[in-house]
Design brief:
- Helix content is 63%, strand content 0%.
- By secondary structure, the protein is an all-alpha fold.
- The longest helix is centred in the first third of the chain and has 28 residues, at 49-76.
- The protein is globular and about 60 Å long.
Length: 240
C-alpha cells in the first residue's frame, strides 16, 4: 500500500511540475506536449475537438504503459540498493517522462516489457549518460552495488535484462524507430490548423510509404504496419 501511495503522490507531483515548466493547463496532456503551440490553440478550434480528445486518450495509453513499467522496476529493486534508498519521489524524478528520450528506450526495449530498460537505455543508445549528471552517478552507484554480489537473485535478474537490452541495441527495430521519428517530425511541423497533416497513424503511414516503400520489409502489409504503429504508441502518443 505504501508503494501505491508513494507512486500516486509522485505522479501528481510530476504533473504539477510539468504544468509549472510548460505552462500547460489542467486539461492538457500530463506528458510532454509535442507541438510548437499550446493546447489552447486546439481547444479554441471546434474542429480540433475530436483530435484533441483522441490525442489525450493516446497520451493516457502511453503514460499508463510507462507508469506500469516504472512501478514494476521500483517493486523489483532490493531495499538495500542505491536506487531504492533514493526513495520513490527522487527515483521517479530521475526517470520521469520529462527527461526520457522515447527513441533511446525503443532502441533497447521495442516490446516495452524489459523491467530495467528505462535505466539501461542511456547505457546502450544515443549519446549515453551525461557523466556530470546526477542520474549517471546514481546509476554508477547502483551498478557498483550489483557487482559487489550482495544480492545474487537480483544480479541474475539485472544480468538477463542487461543482455536483452544490449542485444536489441545491436540490432534495433529500425521501422519502429522510423515511426517514432516521423511522429516527432510531424509534430514539430504541424501548425494545428487542419487535420490533413496532423500526426496520426494515417499520416505517419503515408510518410513512411512515400519514403521507404522499397526499403522496409512488409511495407505493403497493412496488418504488419498496424502492429508496428501499436508498438510505437507505447513510446509516443500516436492516435491509432
Amino acid at each position: 500500500m505504501c508503494i501505491k501511495k508513494d507512486w500516486e503522490t509522485e505522479k501528481q507531483s510530476l504533473r504539477d511540475l510539468h504544468s509549472e515548466l510548460t505552462g500547460s493547463t489542467e486539461g492538457s496532456s500530463n506528458g510532454i506536449w509535442p507541438f510548437s503551440f499550446s493546447d489552447e490553440h486546439l481547444r479554441n478550434n471546434p474542429k480540433m475537438k475530436p483530435f484533441l480528445n483522441d490525442f489525450h486518450q493516446a497520451c493516457e495509453i502511453k503514460e499508463k504503459a510507462e507508469d506500469q513499467l516504472l512501478l514494476k522496476l521500483w517493486n523489483v529493486l532490493p531495499k538495500d540498493s542505491p536506487l531504492k534508498k533514493l526513495g520513490a519521489e527522487k527515483f521517479y524524478s530521475f526517470w520521469t517522462r520529462l527527461n526520457r528520450d522515447p527513441l533511446q528506450l525503443a532502441v533497447v526495449d521495442p516490446e516495452f516489457n524489459i523491467v530495467h530498460s528505462m535505466i539501461l537505455a542511456d547505457q546502450f543508445s544515443g549519446n549515453g549518460f551525461n557523466p556530470k549528471s546526477d542520474r549517471f552517478h546514481v546509476y554508477k552507484d547502483h551498478v557498483n552495488w550489483i557487482m559487489d554480489g550482495s544480492n545474487q537473485k537480483y544480479l541474475e535478474l539485472w544480468s538477463k535484462d542487461f543482455i536483452k537490452c544490449k542485444n536489441y541495441a545491436k540490432k534495433p527495430d529500425n521501422e519502429l524507430l522510423e515511426i517514432i521519428s516521423i511522429f516527432q517530425s510531424i509534430c514539430i511541423s504541424w501548425d494545428g490548423s487542419v487535420l490533413s497533416d496532423c500526426p496520426d497513424a494515417k499520416n505517419i503511414m503515408k510518410s513512411i510509404l512515400q519514403k521507404y516503400t522499397e526499403e522496409f520489409n512488409g511495407s505493403n502489409d497493412e496488418y504488419y504496419w498496424k502492429k508496428k504503429m501499436k508498438m510505437a504508441s507505447r513510446f509516443v502518443p500516436i492516435i491509432c
